[in-house]
Each structure stands twice: as structure tokens, then as C-alpha cells.
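Working notes for the structural subgroup meeting. M.R. asked for a predicted model of this chain before we commit to crystallization trials. I am recording the input and output together here so anyone reviewing the notebook later can reproduce the run.

Input as submitted:
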Amino acid sequence: MKDENVICVSLDAMKRQFDMSEQIWKASVDNINSLPYEYINRSVAENDFTHKQLIPYAVLLNQQGEVFCYQRHGSEKRLADVFSVGIGGHINDHDGGDTISQRLVNGLRREFMEEVGVELSENQFELAGMINEEETEVGHCHTGVVFKVLVDNVNFTFDAEIGNPQWKRIEDLDLAKFELWSALALKLLFSIPKIEI
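Returned structure, recorded in C-alpha cell form:
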């Protein structure tokens, strides 16, 4: 685990703004920017259930409407070898910005450079909503902020965390092999009634 200070919001503040009994909901930039945030050392935050670490979670789509997916090979042991449609990670105090939404996008842009070797502009990230689940160990201390990212003819250079990368049609995804956040993000983005979680 990296020794870094990560962006967090108190659970009480989250509950004042959102219905935390829901697993997914639409959100706006204004919703996100109204949240009071602070930075907590990641080793502390991972065991602090009075706060939620906000994790930007970007789903990539190409011009053919296909979704980018891969198998996780990273340092996060709780997610090792499962399939994912999300690119993202912790936002630290070096990810600058005047607002929390800018900090999330700047952190995402850094993650894209680290994980797939691509520099994207701020306007390619479209905020879609949020994920909150209490079923997994990851979910207890993290809340996902979901972004949709449209890319065209991008040459990715994958780091060691991205295994078996591929573009798939949504209807061809076997969600039983995917992490819960991926299934929730797809349900949020595409309102697919056949997705059972």
C-alpha cells in the first residue's frame, strides 16, 4: 500500500447528501462539489469506517459502443484476478484542483497515464453518478464516483496491473466474472434491466 494522504468524506456528510442505502445513483458536479472533504493517511483510511474514500471509477467506451475491460493484476489483493471495466484509484493530496470534482478528474488523468499510457483532456470525463456498496471489504471504506470516457483510436500502453485487455459489447460481458463495482457501474451507465447483482 502506498504511503499517501487520500481524499475522504465523512460518512455523516455523505448521508446528509445522498441516500446511502442505495447502491447506485445519478450525481452532478454540484452534488460532488458540495461535499466537505479532507485528506487522511491511506493506512488509517483503509480501516476507518466513519469516512468514505472517494474513488473515481472511469468506464471507457469506443466509437463502436464497446466497453474496455481487463483482468486485474495490481497491488490491490482484494481485487486480484477479477475482471473489471473500471480505471481509477485513490486521489491523493498531490492531485490538485480548486474543487473536489477537479481533484477527482486530475487524479483520474494521472491514473490513465500510469495504467494505460494515455493523456486525456478534462472534457473527456463525463460524471455519471456514484457507487456505494457494503457487501465487499473494498466497499466498506470506499465510494465510487463513476465517469464515462469516450475514446477514439487510442493506442494504449498497459502497465502490469492491466491483464487480458479487450473491447467487448455490453451484451457479451459475463458479469459473473466481474467485480461488483463493474456490474454496478454498467447498470448505472446503461440502465440495463437484465443485469442482476
